Amino acid sequence: MAWFILFFAGLLEIVWATAMKSSMGFTRFWPSVLTIVTMLGSFGLLAIATKTLPLGTSYMVWSGIGAVGAFIAGIILFGEDLSPVRLAAGAMIVCGITLMKLGT
């Protein structure tokens, strides 16, 4: 169950990062509200997951899901560049998350 909670916390991290970009520096009301609400939810779920999972593993998986998800969201929603170097960097993050999970 802790892994499911951690995964959902990572998904909320993607939402808050994307909403933060859309908030235009917290100058737009609803994206700012969405950022704060999902940020609190993400941190709260991470805290619950770390009750039973190792801290280092939890934090790495949580931030990795958020980083890769925000990377993908930036490409799809904001037209950010998908260069081979950026794609390789994202793949290395996924490999790191996988190795950390296998090592737990």
TrEMBL record:
Pfam families: Multi_Drug_Res. InterPro entries: EmrE-like (IPR037185), Small_drug/metabolite_transptr (IPR000390), Small_multidrug_res (IPR045324). It is a multi-pass membrane protein. One of its GO terms (biological process) is xenobiotic detoxification by transmembrane export across the plasma membrane. It is found in: Cell membrane. The keyword Transmembrane helix applies. Signal peptide: none annotated. One of its GO terms (molecular function) is transmembrane transporter activity. The chain crosses the membrane at residues 27-47, 59-79. It comes from the Bacteria. Keywords: Cell membrane, Membrane, Transmembrane, Transmembrane helix, Transport. Its main location: membrane. One of its GO terms (cellular component) is plasma membrane. Belongs to the drug/metabolite transporter (DMT) superfamily. Small multidrug resistance (SMR) (TC 2.A.7.1) family. Gdx/SugE subfamily. This is Guanidinium exporter. It comes from Donghicola eburneus.
